[in-house]
Amino acid sequence: MENIKELQKQLTLFDEAYEKGNPLISDTEYEKRYSELQELEQKTGTVDPNSPTQTIAYTKVDGLETVKHTIPMLSLDKANDYHNLKKWFSQVRDNVLVQPKLDGLTIVLHYQDGKLVDAVTRGNGIEGERVLHTVNTVVNLPKEVLFAGNLEIRGEVYIPFDEFNKINTNGEYTNPRAMAAGMIRRHDASSAKGLRIQIFDLVNAEDQVFVTDREQLEFLANQGLPVVQTTMFADFDKITTYCTQWQEKLRQEVPYPIDGMVLKFDRLEIRERLGFTAKFPRWGMAFKFPSQEEFTYLREVTWQVGKSGQITPVAVFDPIEIDGVTINRATLHNKQFILDQDIRIGDRIVVARANDVIPKVIRAVVEARAEELTLPEIPTQCPSCGQDVWVEGSNPHIQCLNPFCKAQIIEKIIHYCSRDAMDIEGMGEVNVRLLFELGFIRDPADLYELHTKAEALQDLEGFGKTKVKKIIEGIEKTKDIPFSRLLFALAIPGVGRTTAQAIVKKFPTLESLKNASKEELAIVDGVGSVTAQSIWFYFQGPQTKTMLNRLVNAGINTEELVAETKDTLTGKTFVLTGTMSLPRAEIEAIIKQSGGKVSGSVSSKTSFLVAAPGETGTTKYQKAVDLGVSIISESQLMEMLL
Predict the structure, then answer these.
(1) What is the DSSP string of 103-154?
(2) What's 592's domain CATH number?
């Protein structure tokens, strides 16, 4: 009994912190303790009606009106492995709808006479808070629908990752879910931005009769509502394959947070027969993915110099596993993030990899700090070259201004060789560092002299004649790459791929760009005064001039060939998925030059999805199939241009 009470106390505390947007424990660890409590309660036959296993955590916000739900809004029971999921499936063995489980805030919506008239949070399942004022700001939610009767539906409000990163510049929110919950429950609707919704359930549609949930979802989609992606299976092995595919691949590709899959029996008669427990419907189940956030302890902060001289703090912590990958290092963003979040050596910290290959520290669990801890030391000298660094009070970054800093030079060469830049096969980070340390290369221009050192390269361990031949051939191919790619490859601070493309439209040759004034550069679309100053300053450096002259002498292309604009693809919108034979930026440029448009997501307005081989299971591919969008290959796209 003592263990039960302690677990109930812990989980109640964790539930309250989670609802406030400051979790004290990872989802994976929470589920372990929750399952342990469930087993103990079942074993002893003692279930407290106030136990976290029987209630839904709910913290009211002062000033928001409380509203009772017309039908109780229960949560879903959870399975963390396929064994328990199969036990649930074996109840009926019928058609099952499978949907990605969005990690946001559940809302009940009411439409009357075709107009949105109310919106209420889930709350404790019995009552929630009226939030129509903020729900009215949700970007993709229609305020009017075709159906004129009383309509009650449920959906998940969320924040896409790009919106989260754009808005959360001060680190106010630990993750997109916390941001969505915080914005929806604000009093001032004008501060709610970037919210989206996906509808997953029909509660009531006046005088309408349905046999299956799939019919209900199709009805909602026909009203113009954004319905969650839904796939139906009758075979459990296919369900597990689909869920595994989402967990291991698709989860990383969707532009919004998901934390599992929702499974529901399709036939409404089955749902009625199975009924409910005190907290869950027996006809539905949530299959939870391992958490993409984990808790650990910060042991050290090191400082890393980037290609632009920016010095970034890196957290070193006790090893943790996220999504099957063991990590012990993650970015700490910048010095200001450390100060704003009050992150200290020895702190319990939250580390995340959600929608991001690069792990990052989200926050310190300050409330868990039991003793006085020290802040990481902010460097006054570059950790690579030892020279004094530039630190401006209002600027969150620390900068090494030494153009001969070894770490900067290496990072610049790595960037120059990368896929989106000059795309030199065989010249990844490891090989660039090795050839730099051995004296073969000191700047990008040295790459074009490696053919004179082929024999020496072949003698290096792990190289050999074939590999060296491929590297030299890859370097030779870069001589014909568009000038905009070269400009991006030079790693000028502030000049990304899109900015480089805009610059070469105004200055189509290296010579014209070198002679451009700061004022002329500043008026280029997407540049501005700060980047203009950076570009101008870059071309003034004597070492830059020498390096560029060597590139020109090596035969590198320094002119942007202005392609004749065609109207072959006018009126057509394309979405790309997967790795193509050409860099994505080039394919996008080809489409635009032929009059077409490029979008990042599939919708009813998409004309074609251009899919690389092996992309049939991606979210974009599945959505294209569901919407009836034509799916073509890269070669078919090229045929359309003829």
Answers:
(1) -SEEEEEEEETTEEEEEEE-TTSSEEEB-HHHHTT-TT--SB-S--S-EEEE
(2) 3.40.50.10190
Please calculate the CA angle 605-608-611 and round it to the nearest 5 degrees: 130
Please check whether residue 613 lies inside any domain of the structure.
yes
Q: Comparing C-alpha atoms, which of 23, 98, 106 is closest to residue 72? A: 106
446 & 495 share domain: yes
Spatial strand order in the sheet of 608-611:
597-599, 573-577, 608-611, 630-632
Q: What angle do CA 270, 274, 279 make, to 5 degrees?
A: 130
Tell whether 266 and 176 lie within a shared domain.
yes
The answer to whether position 567 is within a domain reads no
Query: Which residues are registered as beta bridge partners of 630?
Result: 608
Distance CA 190, CA 152 (A): 26
pTM of this prediction exceeds 0.90:
no
Give CA 188 to chain center in angstroms: 27
The pLDDT tens digits for 44-103 are: 877 777 777 776 665 666 678 889 999 888 888 888 889 989 999 998 889 999 999 999
The answer on 355 and 413 residing in a single domain is: no
> Residue 412, Cβ neighbours under 10 Å: how many?
23
CB 76 within 8 A of CB 262: yes
What CATH number is associated with residue 427? 1.10.150.20
Return the active site residues.
101
pLDDT band at 625 (very low <50, low <70, confident <90, very high): confident
Q: Which domain holds residue 467?
A: 406-553
- Residue 526 burial (CB < 10 Å; 0-12/13-18/19+)? middle
Task: Identify the sign of the CA torsion 463, 464, 470, 474.
Answer: positive
Question: What is the number of domains present in the chain?
Answer: 5
Q: What spatial distance separates the first Cα and last Cα of the chain, rounded to whole Å?
A: 76
Among 200, 158, 178, residue whose Cα is nearest residue 59: 178
Query: Which long-range contacts (C-beta less than 8 Å, at least 24 apart) are formed by 434-440?
Result: 434/460, 436/409, 436/410
Two tokens, residue 524 = 């280029």
**573 SS3 class:** strand
Give the pLDDT of residue 357: 63
The tokens describing 354, both together, are: 């959600």
Q: Tell me, what CATH number does 263's domain have?
A: 3.30.470.30
Q: Are residues 622 and 590 in the same domain?
A: yes
Last residue of a domain, one of 396, 428, 457: 396
